[in-house]
Design goal:
17% of the residues lie in helices and 34% in strands. The chain has three helices and nine strands. The protein has a nine-stranded antiparallel β-sheet with strand order 7-1-2-6-5-3-4-9-8. The longest helix is centred in the last third of the chain and has 10 residues. The termini are far apart.
């Protein structure tokens, strides 16, 4: 096995992280952009599983996809989705300040976010 040159850009880390911001954006760090090949997609479809308190993100290039959300990208390699209307529609609580990083899984080519604030908010309803 030979040596491999590290040529990646500066980053805070390469562990995939997806942040949910207080303004309703879903932001991808460099690790998530690389792992899920986000720069090769133009749109995402957002799903919500109310029983499991999970958010699904299906990446697509199909312009005809129902409910598609444009993936915003910068030249610096960052990417995010504007999802405020999604959070409002499903009454999903957003972080009051800053951002929150849910646990990430994949299921049937979908990125799945286990969002702790949803669980906490819904648990309060049953207390």
């Amino acid at each position: 096995m030979g040596f491999e040159l590290f040529t990646a850009q500066k980053s805070r880390g390469y562990e995939p992280k997806i942040s949910i911001r207080s303004r309703g954006q879903i932001a991808f760090n460099v690790g998530a952009i690389i792992r899920y090949d986000i720069m090769s997609y133009r749109y995402a479809q957002l799903y919500y599983d109310a029983e499991a308190y999970m958010i699904g993100i299906n990446l697509t290039n199909n312009e005809q996809s129902e409910g598609k959300v444009k993936i915003s990208k910068r030249k610096d390699g960052s990417a995010w989705l504007s999802a405020k209307s999604f959070f409002n529609y499903f009454n999903i609580p957003l972080p009051e300040k800053g951002s929150e990083q849910p646990e990430i899984e994949t299921f049937n080519n979908m990125i799945v976010l286990k969002y702790p604030s949803i669980i906490e908010e819904n648990m309060k309803l049953f207390q």
